[in-house]
């Protein structure tokens, strides 16, 4: 990939495809305080950047009737199934199911550090390139909307908002982004923040 590749700024920040994240997640100590040290269930999400002069990150809005995280902005992805060979397989399968993303139009680039959730999952974020021709169709049972955010938006420090929230008697430092009426917060914002940290932009 040449320096003219619009995604080249991301590449040095990624864990290589042959070196998926191992050991405790970057927020493990915080999650241990909140939910203990019970084994985390494996999951994976796709941080997919649609190709173009200005790459755009593909995000979803979860439907309002889901039991967990209803109405929230999220990356395509979910828990690992027994037949999934690895985190990439999970992310591609879930993206196909949730937004109709043809896996032949996805090129995995690397990983971010794993992230643990309040609900007891250990998420492996898979960063990938999505062909500009990919057509996306939200699965109505899970996804209310698919939208895309330009990479430059996340690279601008003015768009990162920090705040503190109380959870089970603990004060948690949080981050969020607001774009086009969408609030990007929670685990989704935290994983984006990890990307910015790894890029030296936080």
Automatic annotation (TrEMBL):
<keyword id="KW-0464">Manganese</keyword>
<dbReference type="Pfam" id="PF00293">
    <property type="entry name" value="NUDIX"/>
</dbReference>
<dbReference type="InterPro" id="IPR045121">
    <property type="entry name" value="CoAse"/>
</dbReference>
<dbReference type="GO" id="GO:0010945">
    <property type="term" value="F:coenzyme A diphosphatase activity"/>
</dbReference>
<protein>
    <submittedName>
        <fullName>CoA pyrophosphatase</fullName>
    </submittedName>
</protein>
<keyword id="KW-0378">Hydrolase</keyword>
<dbReference type="InterPro" id="IPR000086">
    <property type="entry name" value="NUDIX_hydrolase_dom"/>
</dbReference>
<feature type="domain" description="Nudix hydrolase">
    <location>
        <begin position="39"/>
        <end position="171"/>
    </location>
</feature>
<dbReference type="InterPro" id="IPR015797">
    <property type="entry name" value="NUDIX_hydrolase-like_dom_sf"/>
</dbReference>
<keyword id="KW-0479">Metal-binding</keyword>
<dbReference type="GO" id="GO:0046872">
    <property type="term" value="F:metal ion binding"/>
</dbReference>
<keyword id="KW-0460">Magnesium</keyword>
């Amino acid at each position: 990939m040449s320096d003219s590749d619009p995604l080249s700024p991301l590449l040095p920040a990624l864990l290589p495809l042959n070196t998926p994240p191992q050991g405790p997640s970057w927020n493990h100590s915080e999650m241990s305080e909140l939910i203990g040290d019970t084994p985390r269930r494996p999951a994976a999400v796709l941080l997919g950047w649609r190709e173009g002069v200005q790459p755009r990150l593909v995000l979803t809005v979860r439907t309002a009737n889901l039991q967990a995280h209803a109405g929230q902005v999220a990356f395509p992805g979910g828990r690992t199934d027994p037949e999934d060979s690895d985190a990439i397989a999970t992310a591609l399968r879930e993206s196909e199911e949730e937004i109709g993303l043809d896996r032949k139009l996805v090129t995995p680039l690397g990983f971010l550090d794993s992230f643990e959730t309040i609900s007891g999952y250990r998420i492996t974020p898979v960063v990938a390139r999505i062909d500009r021709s990919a057509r996306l169709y939200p699965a109505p049972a899970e996804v209310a909307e698919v939208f895309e955010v330009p990479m430059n938006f996340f690279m601008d420090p003015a768009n990162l908002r920090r705040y503190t929230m109380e959870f089970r008697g603990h004060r948690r430092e949080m981050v969020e982004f607001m774009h086009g009426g969408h609030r990007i917060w929670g685990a989704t914002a935290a994983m984006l923040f990890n990307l910015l940290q790894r890029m030296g932009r936080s």
